[in-house]
Write a structure and sequence with these properties.
Chain A is of the alpha/beta class and 997 residues long. Helix content of chain A is 26%, strand content 17%. In chain A, a hairpin with a 2-residue loop joins β23 (602-608) and β24. Chain B has helices at 6-13, 22-48, 63-87, 93-118, 144-177, 181-189, 197-230, 242-269, 277-308, 311-322, 326-338, 346-349, 352-379, 394-417, 423-429, 435-440. The chains are: A alpha/beta (997), B mainly alpha (441). Chains A and B meet through β30, α24, α25 and β34 of A and α5 and α10 of B.
Amino acid sequence: MSKMNRRDFFRVVGVSGTAGLVACDPKSPAEQLYPYVIDPEEITPGLPTYYATVVEGCSVLAKVREGRVVHIESNPNRENAGVSPAAQASVQETYDPDRAQGPQVGGAAASWDEALGTIAAAVAANPAGTRWLGRYRTGSLQALISGFVSGLGGQNAHWEPHGHSVLANAAKIAWGSSAPPAFDMSGAEVIVSFGADFLHTWSDSGNHCAGWAQARSKDNGHIAHFTAIEPRVSNTSAKADTWLSTRPGTEAGVARALAKLVADEKGSTGAAKAYLAGVDVAAAASAAGIPEEKLKALASAIASKPSVVFPGGVTTYGSDATDLALAVLVLNQVAGNVGTSVLPDGNPLGPIHSYTEAMDAVGGAEVLFIDGLDPVFSSPSGAAQEVIAAAKLVVVFGNSMPEGMPEGTILLPPGSELETWGDHQLGHSFMALQQPAMKPLYNTRSVGDALLSLSKHSQIAPLLANGTEAVPTDDDGGSSTTDFAAADFQSFIKGRWNNMHVASGDVAPFSSAWVQALRVGGINLATTPVSAELKALPAPGAATLVDGTTLLLFSHQNLLDGRHANKAWLQEIPETLSGYTWGTWAEISPATADRLGVSNKHTLTIKSASGSIEAGVSVSKGMRDDAVAVVVGNGHKTGNRYSKDYGANPAVLVNGLRDAKSGEVAWLGTSVEIAKGAADNIMSKLNGHTDQDGRPLARASYVKDVEEAGPDAETGSLAPGLGIPLDPRIPEDSYDMYPEPEHPTYRFGMSIDLDSCTGCTSCQVACASENNIAIAGPEQHRKSRYMGWIRMDAFWEGEGDNPDVRFLPVMCQQCSHAPCEGVCPVLATYHNLDGLNAMIYNRCVGTRYCANNCPYSARRFNYHTFRWPESYNLMLNPDVSTREMGVMEKCTFCIQRIRYAKANHRANGIDVVPNDVLESLPACVSACPTGAMTFGNLKDENATVSKIASGPRAYQMLDALNTKPGVRYLTKVVHTKPVDPHHGGGHGDDHSSNDNH
Amino acid sequence: MSNLTYGQVTKDIIRPLFKPSLLHGLALVTAIACLSVGAYCWKLQLEQGLGVAGYEPPVMWGVYITTFVFWVGIGHAGTLISAILFLFRARWRTGVYRASEAMTIFAVLTAGLFPILHAGRCWYAYWLFPYPNQRQLWPNFKSPLVWDVFAISTYLTISAIFFYIGLIPDMAATRDKVKGFGKRVYGALCLGWRGTDNQWRHYMAAYGFFAALCTPLVISVHSVVSWDFAMSSTPGWHSTIFPPYFVAGAIFSGCAMVLTLLIPMRSLFKWEDYLTIWHFERLAQLCLLTGAILTYAYATEYFIAWYSDNPYEWGTFIYRPTGDYAWAFWLMVSCNCIFPLALWFKKVRTSLKWLFIISLIINVGMWFERFNIIATSLAHMFDPGAWVYYLPNRIEMGILVGSFGWFFMWFLLFVKVMPSVAIAEIKEGVRPPLKADEVTT
């Protein structure tokens, strides 16, 4: 050591220090950035481009950043804009890390030529043995499928497990219709449903949501009364003003009785009169367990006011399903709804087959094509398995292999709708055009492209009388031949659209019409007003009633019949009524729960003659004592990482019963035994108590009071000081210790109408997509660590036949006097000049004090660094940072969108973003299908949100705390005078100026 | 004590410094083993995030903050005994104050770990200090957590200095008894103490001065800690009674911990002459008093919650004894309000066995008091839709165990290297050696 001099010391330090630095962080290798060699046209890095397209039957805009779809927006060119959760989650189908990246033959990767060659050889061996089992298809794809299959002399069948064959069959019997009717409740004052989950999973729910908002809007002249007649309170009937709980299986009788009562008041003729002649109202009412007077009162309401009656759904379709649907159509007919609120042929879905029809049609296949279905998972009692086992070759169009496919099955991945061309008929008046918003990620071909390639195969082409075969088409597309010569599916569609254009007599050149259709998302079809006359109706059959406990099935709110089970957001977002995620639960009544000694902590064993499952318990006030309701959608035995092995599949319980008239599976009519399960319920249930405990959080107003008060949107009576005076005896300036925060230009606020909110979770999915919200997964949910920024509370306020369920979406309320801000030790959260509680993720230390002090429990904490699997990361919004472990996060009213709008306008010399731009700026507001949410600048008296926020139904949640939130809720409107929720105390929340009755 | 001599006192009290004890060694090994458990749990937590703990939002604070408040509370009694009782000239403090002060220092050291353990990104915990930085960022002086940082760091600093001042004459006495390297260490530590009249005069002035400085801190530190809760809007926390209620609880738990520590020490080191039943009875009486204040505070909280007619506040207070956490509530009530009533009996107060048992019960009860305040309030906030039932998991319990290991490790090391009873002050009570004694003996 003594030899070391100053220079040596520096040498040693220099070398060792550099070595140390070099050794640091070996995990992140150098990455290189490559600039575009040739800039793609019309793409500016950092700025999004939007493409109008259609996904999951929803006309939308796909938001693309740097060549990747990152978000699904509502299509502003369409009325009733809003986006369904499933449509938004199509992004996740696109980036699904496990989806098939190319064709597979018997589980091994193959080239398209190999796969199509194998299929062509099998088809050529016996062309007439070609069978097609697929989901409903409309437009060009349907024409191509029909042309292909019938050209070969085969047969095609289109079935969906929770589909519309019953209603289609009933409409065919009643009116000779070729398609199921559409329902329009926008003008209705009386809404009745016999089990259709029409706001969520049943048929065209997007339009129904918009119609619901209109039917319940005082500004449109009426606040409709909704009666649900069904054995279970569903997400839809949770919005009902009256719930008539029927004994399962008796709904058809009730519908006939109601039709009879209406016919007695309004008079009826012909087929309706004959059909209703022998109906015994008293017997039907007593069989169903409903007081006859209630039916009579309802009937006179239907007879005297504009009404709409929805048929049944999965929950109420038993062996007399068609009879229920028929009775509902007759009821609508005698009530005079046909042509106004019920539009015959209004919902063209292409050919529709019942289960029996479909299985008969595809039986004995040489080559069985399965398109977009998981038949073994979805169908009860083995028929589908037999059909599949009998086929020599099974070809599946799907991004992953369905359940129970034989060895040697060929999988042809069609990719996602966001990557491919297509067209879809939405309702009777819109033909939507599906254009690829990005290049396909993998070696996939859409069903159309794959079929065209196959039809051009040397072994197949001679079999198809190319271009001359007359094909049945589902629409009047003007095409009676199938153009197998089309270069690809895009040209195929374009050809058909050209024909359509010519047929329409439009003089404009097709090219401009095509570009216009691409720009707005499709074209409107000429529609003629439809009315229909009843034909002679068959006598109703007997209902299958079950002694003991009846099994009721219902579609999962977001997973539907299970087709969306692999989309993580849809698994992740709690089902609104039950709060469950990632699994299968069974609903039982509180009395049943007491009898079995179970609670939400337990599981239930449900056993029928054909199988048994175990499911988590959800005790629901909306269940009958003689039934158990099980959700369909989970329980996949195969599938990808987000769908496999979650929950149980209740299809195994359903017996072989069929609807007598249509041949559809009778989902209702299975007798089950239920017992306490052996295991604890480890499922994740994310809503806490479903009782408000008298706390005035989700408030309601009595309909009469609402009708007497002024319009919901008042003009400018709200001073933008934002605080609603708490108690008039105390001067307002004595409430606050700190001065009012400065808001020079904007004070952003939001209004949420609890009456039009249907709890559809669209806002939650939109939020997750826009803000890169982590997918926490079931393990974390078990500890209530849900990362979504919007929590959907569901409170049961009613009893008996008045469920009065109140959905309350709670996000950060952006308080002016925010409790979270004061307690943050490092100022990671602060109030900005726009009235937002900004959050600086990088500054957050993670003391979590802000979350403790948030009265709305709106903050979320990153307990781990949640990561996205490879390829899921591609859907992240580049405008929003992802958060690491230890950081708090919450809603910011989509501050990145606000900033973008501001910058955009400033660049054009506009200093203040106009109201109409702000109105639907946040992702949740833009996605809301009922338009329940409005966003805007509360400082501007003319902004819609300011008008709504000063209306008679507006209130602030927990206003007694004087946090001065920027979110205003509008009370739910109830038809039963509510008990004052403020009974039993609280100096608080009660004395808002907008008294809530 | 009258038959003791100065020499005997010094010899008795520094005896543990020389003689290795098997029991002491075993205790130390156990403490370090517990600490290792905690350290392992913390490692997992650092790697994977706070999620390895059992937090169930909106219960964002759980066992860590519970244990933090518990240790801060323990850290109260020492300074109370050494400073406040010194100013009040309570003579019984002499025997117990050194150990209590050591307990205080180590308890605050333990408590100080928890805000770090509990932070989501503890590697940035230093951002809570107002230090000059190039971003020109300050902490938020409105936040009670920042007050907490100041209160606790001040308390730790002043208590440590006060503790050190008390040790100076005793370290000098130790220096005189040890040989070799130790002599140099103690010599350096006692800052050249020779026991001259002049030194004693300055010393007593300084001691009194620091005692006066510590006194308000005893009150302030736990008041500030209570503001972490009282300043928030959460039902069950938002209450003006918190500061006195917390201070009373802290003294209660601190005295119990002193009993827990001193009773085994007395028999282990054979200090029956110095730590007499009389000392323990006084501590027991202090427990009785503070326990009664605490019970009164519980009752007042309920009265105010009911009287306020605030449905959220009352909802929480009904939830505690009847809801999911009823077990924890009743455990707290029985440990803190009911069992300590036994101290009314002199027989119990003077039985070391019973005192030890009751002191353990109080320790448990006081931990659960904080658990009750934190977990039940957060699990049952304003919106019923967000209610949960949180229970600590193994990681959190591991860290709780680790904190005891950490505390006892320091304490056990301390008793091995420093005189744990104030030699100089004991000698004040011993008859001074007289020339006549030399003649008679």
